[in-house]
Amino acid sequence: MLDRSHKPSLRSQAMTIFNKIINKEIPAKIVYEDDLCMAFHDVTPQAPTHILMIPKKQIRSMAEVKAEDKEVLGHMMVKCSEIAAKLGVSEKGFRLVVNTNSWGGQSVYHLHIHLLAGRALSWPPG
Ligand code: 5GP
């Protein structure tokens, strides 16, 4: 059964700027939204196309993902693929990135998938 509530659990978790975007308290250029997730343009794009895909459920990072989150995470991946197609970047290619905790380069502690496209991306990352 999918948990469609996106209220933080009683175990207190810090709100982030992404909660304000979910609650429409601050603006974002939203490209997709449903009960479970939301996707919007990154405010500081690192590529010509740079979308952030987030769950509405408050999950701090990939390091805190639980088995019960597998459906929402799978749903987000499917939607990223659909968004890439809609934005016309599928054929050339794109990259999905989930920065996790300090050494992973995470700065906003609400799990998010970066969808980067529109230029050739180098490897390995810095
Ligand atoms: P992280 O560094 O945690 O992997 O990625 C966080 C991303 O959130 C960064 O790419 C940053 O540019 C983006 N970001 C931070 N604040 C905002 C905001 O208020 N609006 C939008 N659209 N993106 C934001």
Topology (elements, then pairings):
Layout: H1 17-22, E1 30-33, E2 37-41, E3 49-55, H2 70-86, E4 94-97, H3 101-104, E5 113-117
Antiparallel strand pairs: 1-2, 2-3, 3-5, 4-5
This protein binds guanosine-5'-monophosphate.
Features:
single chain; 126 residues; alpha+beta; HIT family, subunit A; five-stranded antiparallel beta sheet; 3 helices; 20% strand; binds guanosine-5'-monophosphate
General description of the model:
- This protein is α+β, with helices and mostly antiparallel strands and about 130 residues long.
- About 20% of the residues lie in helices and about 20% in strands.
- It has 3 helices and 5 strands.
- The protein has a 5-stranded antiparallel sheet with strand order 1-2-3-5-4, with helices on one face.
- A hairpin with a 7-residue loop joins strand 2 (about 35-40) and strand 3 (about 50-55).
- The longest helix has 17 residues, at about 70-85.
- It is globular and about 35 Å long.
- The N and C termini lie far apart (about 40 Å).
- The model is unreliable at about 10 (pLDDT under 50).
- Bound molecules: guanosine-5'-monophosphate (5GP).
- Guanosine-5'-monophosphate (5GP) binds next to strand 2.
